[in-house]
Write a structure and sequence with these properties.
With 224 residues, this protein is of the alpha/beta class. It has six helices and twelve strands.
């Protein structure tokens, strides 16, 4: 695998802030994927705390599953608000994120991490209150990291996580349900659709509280 370091083009700050308002609602990742007609949903991840809800642009890191290396130097390319996505292709054998990585990420203002593979030091990460999504845990660190191997690594390239393509700068909305991916070109449309969905769910809840039947709700809204 050839080493690649690309610059990250991030969505406008006001766009991120607008999506951050969605985090105040129940299940923001579900609301966003509903607005994309169920597209862009990634499931099967654990969280260190179920109450964590985050939004931010993806800084992507692609690692070869046959040559996992220390990706800690990638943090120097991150900016406050980024979500670091490490694509190690689900391998459960090597921990590619831990307590020190989380501590450095907090210092750098990174919003969260997404590791498509194994992590370690979950108790420390929980105490740090750093939002992290991961596939599995294992005590074993990367054997190449012990020898200060930092390449080959590809930074800010499209990666595939859970069958979903994440491009650098895509907006991620994550909670305990999973991760929603919003391409930069679709942020305005998805935000508008998400706001409509929030309004619809509020109306349905009010009608349920007022005694509306399932039949009446289905007749009015088509589906719930």
């Amino acid at each position: 695998m050839q080493t690649v370091y690309n610059d990250l083009v991030r969505p406008p700050r006001e766009t991120v802030e607008a999506f951050r308002e969605v985090l105040k609602e129940y299940s923001p990742s579900c609301l966003v994927t509903d607005a994309r007609k169920r597209v862009g949903a990634i499931g099967g991840f654990h969280t260190v705390r179920p109450e964590h809800k985050v939004v931010g642009p993806a800084l992507t890191v692609n690692l070869s599953v046959d040559d996992l290396v220390d990706c800690m130097p990638v943090l120097a390319r991150a900016e406050p608000g980024d979500i670091v996505v490490v694509a190690c292709h689900g391998t459960p054998l090597t921990a590619m994120w831990g307590g020190l990585m989380s501590t450095l990420s907090l210092k750098a203002g990174i919003t969260a991490g997404v590791v498509d593979g194994a992590v370690r030091d979950v108790d420390e990460i929980r105490d740090l209150d750093f939002p992290l999504w991961y596939r599995s845990t294992v005590p074993r660190p990367s054997p190449t990291a012990v020898h200060d191997r930092t390449e080959p690594v590809q930074v800010n390239v499209p990666v595939v996580v859970g069958g979903q393509v994440i491009r650098p700068g895509d907006l991620l909305v994550a909670d305990e349900n999973g991760i929603a991916v919003v391409p930069q070109a679709e942020t305005d449309d998805v935000l508008a659709g998400t706001r409509l969905g929030i309004g619809k769910e509020r109306t349905i809840r009010e009608k349920i509280a007022s005694g509306a039947t399932v039949t009446a709700l289905l007749e009015e809204f088509g589906h719930l």
